[in-house]
Amino acid sequence: MAKIITLCAFIFSLMLPFHAEAQQPDFNALMEQQGLVDVQQLDSEIKVELKYATEDNFVGENMYGSLTTAYLLPHFAQKVVRAQKILRERYPDYSLLIYDAARPISVQRRMRRAVEGTPLEIYVADGTRGGRHNYGVAVDLTIVDKTGTPLDMGAKFDHFGEEAWVGNDADVTLAAYKAYVKKQQERGLISAKAAANRILLLEIMDAVGLRPYVKEWWHYQERISMSATRERYKLLDF
To answer: Per residue in 183-231, pLDDT tens?
Structure first.
């Protein structure tokens, strides 16, 4: 009897990975069902490296499973495509690199739990109703050179600190963001090169009607309120 129990336990242990894999949501299919589009299908020159599909993020875990595609609502994706075109016109050897795009609310809740009750929670949207990523209308991105190397922006992606800021909550214009970045340089928080690169990204994204989240140089969104975002778009509730 003991041998039978041991054998059953062994077989069950072998089945666990397959069961877990079967339970992994197919985020690609769910994104497409919600009407989101693959940005690279619109412009294959845009680079994509989803940080939350790796361990190179503030949680230190792969939270996307096999999802490696940058999905966005169609109208928002077109803005990113236009930004890429403007960037290439100014700097033919440069390209946009997307770090994150549409994000399922289930992932948002995992992120929030990781910082809940800490000073870092101001950087992570509440998982109750979600933030703009959870509606498919936010993108995290940077600029890379012809070798694929990201430009120096003064702080890495997912850096939680003033070094990553590009403004304050009252800033709503390109001029205000640029002035803030230059003050960061004057204070010695970032280098002159990093300031110039941030301003370039600000200019490119502003040209297509997107503004930054002031505490993250990499995050861009529409110029509408969060309440309007929730009224206008559908939550990625999976």
So the answer is: 999 999 999 999 999 999 999 999 999 999 999 999 999 999 999 999 9
**How many degrees, rounded to 5, is the angle at CA 44 between CA 37 and CA 48?**
75
CB 217 within 8 A of CB 180: no
**In CATH, what number is assigned to the domain containing residue 186?**
3.30.1380.10
| Residue 32 included in any domain | yes
- Candidates 222, 47, 77, 40; CA nearest to 143 is 47
Q: What is the pLDDT of residue 25?
A: 87
Q: Confirm if 131 and 125 have CB atoms less than 8 A apart.
A: yes
Structural domain boundaries, residue 112: 24-232
Residues 6+ apart with CB under 8 A from 69: 28, 31, 38, 40, 48, 50
End-to-end CA distance of the chain: give it in Å, rounded: 44
User: Is residue 13 included in any domain, yes or no?
Assistant: no
pLDDT digits (tens, 9 = 90+) for 14-70: 333 333 334 668 999 999 999 999 999 999 999 999 999 999 999 999 999 999 999
In a domain, 3, yes or no: no
30 in any annotated domain: yes
Cβ contact 200:83 at 8 Å: no
Residue written as token pair 């509440």 = 126
| Gap between the Cα atoms of 219 and 225, Å rounded | 15
Helices then strands (H, E): number in the chain? 8, 7
